[in-house]
């Protein structure tokens, strides 16, 4: 039976661990061996909205495994712009490839595609709903950097209200027994309360603060996100808060020695360039891990064992 | 005059029909609204009683309909909007069958998703699907956009 990757909510801890294990094995394989694994297979990268980073990461993963890539990078290049229904596009493209990677601004589109398609579908982001491959690569990065996931302390900084990356990662980490979270956000962009509601209120602790400095010395992972200007109803408020969430190398003096700073990228002005040279900067290796995790995902969903 | 007789005066017994009983006071109008949306119900005589005394509930609403058979679709709709009511079938003035309807755990193509950016609202002809979030609450999760809603805030689909 074909297997899709649509939502982190569909995955158990054991299934997530399988992806991690596979990613570690992929990383150890020599490039020439890796290149033989998906020869003759074709991945369709169907990007109904632009996302350069995710698309290039998937294409790179497929090329490294020796497979071929077809696709489009925006909706205007498709028959959907001529009035074709989404399901018709799926029914057509499934004849051209072995696996589909879909990014779409509409929420639930990947789930719908998976339902109508006879080949595996990977969700590369559906509106503000899910982006499971980002969450898997984030967990993979944390595990690689710290050697463990359970019991670590994670600080999230920036737009915690709208960031689907943050929402998805918090829920996944809770499954891995991460119980302490520091949430650094301006009042108007705080994490919605329902994310903190669990059946075990005594187990999980969420500390909310407006001050980035407070979090730095207390966490093992500092997960930064972009604060988008368009999220603020009042631009004056944006001007007020934007600089208070700028991480600089000087601020990291009190950090724990093993701390890693992560960011889903692109950064705008949340991380100063002088942080790049510190041992704490983990965001560019995180992008590299993204390709490895996506190689693992392609192999798993195409049923290829290594 | 006893209370029993008062009831008889206010809302007559029916020889053949369907009674929806144990409706929480104030919710009867919601059920009436659902029923009135179905074409097959347009010519059916319906009586709505509001705020009756009830031993079990304090106050309750009541609906009587003169028809032989209530379609499973309408029953399911009622169970989603006002779960826990009793539906009784009446023959020769007597109750010959009754059932307490509970909200289903899976609601297929009966409610519209409220999220305008959900694929079920963007593409035509997509059947909606909701799952109950937990046993006790009235919250349901859209299978597509994964948003959680209170059942009562979602509009029913009338075919």
Give the % helix of chain B. 10-25%
Briefly, what CATH class of the largest domain in chain B?
Answer: Alpha Beta
What is the 3D shape of chain B? globular
How is the CATH topology of the largest domain in chain A named? Rossmann fold
CATH topology of the largest domain in chain B: Alpha-Beta Plaits
Taking Cα atoms only, what radius of gyration of chain A do you get, to the nearest Å?
A: 20 Å
Distance between the termini of chain B: 46 Å
Number of helices of chain B: 4
- The gross shape of chain A turns out to be globular
Strand order of the largest sheet of chain A: 7-6-5-8-9
Report the total helices of chain A: 10
List unreliable stretches of 5+ residues of chain B.
none
Topology, please?
The complex is a heterodimer of chains A (306) and B (159).
Chain A: H1 13-28, H2 31-34, E1 42-47, H3 52-64, E2 68-72, H4 86-93, E3 99-104, H5 109-116, E4 121-126, H6 132-146, E5 153-157, H7 164-175, E6 180-184, E7 205-209, H8 212-216, E8 221-224, H9 235-242, E9 260-262, H10 283-301
Parallel strand pairs in A: 1-2, 1-3, 3-4, 5-6, 5-8, 6-7, 8-9
Helix pairs in contact in A: 1-10, 3-10, 4-5, 6-7, 6-10
Chain B: H1 3-10, E1 16-24, H2 28-37, E2 46-54, E3 58-65, H3 72-81, E4 86-91, E5 94-100, E6 106-108, H4 119-122, E7 129-132, E8 139-142, E9 148-150
Descriptive overview:
The complex is a heterodimer of chains A (306) and B (159). By secondary structure, chain A is of the alpha/beta class. Chain A is 35% helix and 15% strand. Chain A has 2 domains: 8-130 and 288-301, 3-Layer(aba) Sandwich (Rossmann fold); 133-286, 3-Layer(aba) Sandwich (Rossmann fold). Chain A is built from 10 helices and 9 strands. In chain A, α3 packs across α10 and α4 packs across α5. Chain A is globular, with a radius of gyration of 20 Å. The model of chain A has no long low-confidence stretch (mean pLDDT 93). Chain B is an alpha+beta fold. Chain B has 2 domains: 3-100, Alpha-Beta Plaits, CATH 3.30.70.140; 106-153, Aspartate carbamoyltransferase regulatory subunit, C-terminal domain (SH3 type barrels). Helices cover 20% and strands 33% of the residues of chain B. Chain B has helices at 3-10, 28-37, 72-81, 119-122; strands at residues 16-24, 46-54, 58-65, 86-91, 94-100, 106-108, 129-132, 139-142, 148-150. A 5-stranded antiparallel beta sheet of chain B has the order 2-3-1-4-5, with helices on one face. Chain B has a 4-stranded antiparallel beta sheet with strand order 6-7-8-9, with no helix packed on it. In chain B, β8 (139-142) and β9 (148-150) form a beta hairpin. In chain B, α2 (28-37) packs antiparallel against α3. The longest helix of chain B is centred in the N-terminal third of the chain and has 10 residues, at 28-37. The mean pLDDT of chain B is 88. The A-B interface holds A 7, 9, 85-87, 105-109, 111-112, 126-130, 194 and B 115, 117-120, 122-124, 126, 142-148.
């Amino acid at each position: 039976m074909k297997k899709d990757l649509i939502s982190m909510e569909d995955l158990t801890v054991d299934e997530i661990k399988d992806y991690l294990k596979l990613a570690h094995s992929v990383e150890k394989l020599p490039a020439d061996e890796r290149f033989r694994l998906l020869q003759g297979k074709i991945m369709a990268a169907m990007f109904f909205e632009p996302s350069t980073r995710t698309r290039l990461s998937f294409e790179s993963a497929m090329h490294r495994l020796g497979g071929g890539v077809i696709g489009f990078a925006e909706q205007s290049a498709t028959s959907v712009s001529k009035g074709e229904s989404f399901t018709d596009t799926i029914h057509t493209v499934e004849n051209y490839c072995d696996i589909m990677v879909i990014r779409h601004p509409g929420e639930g589109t990947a789930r719908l595609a998976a339902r109508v398609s006879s080949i595996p579908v990977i969700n590369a982001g559906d509106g503000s709903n899910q982006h499971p491959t980002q969450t898997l690569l984030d967990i993979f990065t944390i595990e690689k950097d710290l050697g463990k996931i359970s019991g670590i302390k994670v600080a999230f900084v920036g737009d915690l209200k709208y960031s689907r990356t943050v929402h998805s990662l918090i829920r996944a980490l809770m499954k891995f027994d991460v119980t302490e979270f520091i949430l650094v956000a301006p009042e108007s962009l705080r994490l919605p309360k329902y994310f903190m509601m669990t059946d075990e209120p005594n187990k999980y602790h969420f500390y909310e603060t407006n001050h980035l400095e407070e979090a730095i010395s207390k966490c093992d992972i500092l997960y930064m996100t972009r604060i988008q200007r368009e999220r603020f109803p009042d631009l004056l408020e944006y001007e007020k808060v934007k600089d208070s969430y700028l991480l600089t190398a000087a601020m990291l003096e009190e950090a724990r020695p093993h701390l890693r700073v992560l960011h889903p990228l692109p950064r705008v002005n949340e991380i100063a360039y002088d942080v790049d040279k510190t041992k704490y900067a983990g965001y560019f290796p995180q992008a590299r891990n993204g390709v490895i995790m996506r190689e693992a995902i392609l192999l798993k969903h195409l049923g290829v064992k290594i | 005059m006893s209370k029993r007789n008062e009831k008889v005066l206010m809302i007559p017994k029916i020889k053949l029909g369907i009674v929806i009983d144990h409706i929480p006071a104030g919710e009867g109008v919601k059920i009436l609204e659902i029923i009135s949306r179905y074409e097959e119900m347009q010519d059916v005589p319906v009586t709505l009683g509001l705020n009756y005394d009830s031993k079990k509930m304090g106050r309750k609403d009541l609906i009587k309909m003169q028809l032989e058979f209530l379609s499973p679709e309408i029953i399911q709709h009622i169970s989603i909007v006002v779960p826990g009511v009793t539906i009784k079938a009446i023959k020769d003035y007597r109750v010959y069958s009754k059932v307490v309807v509970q909200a289903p755990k899976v609601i297929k193509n009966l409610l519209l998703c409220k999220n305008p950016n959900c694929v079920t609202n963007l593409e035509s002809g997509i059947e909606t699907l909701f799952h109950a979030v937990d046993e006790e609450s009235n919250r349901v999760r859209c299978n597509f956009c994964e948003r959680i809603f209170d059942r009562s805030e979602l509009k029913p689909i009338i075919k």
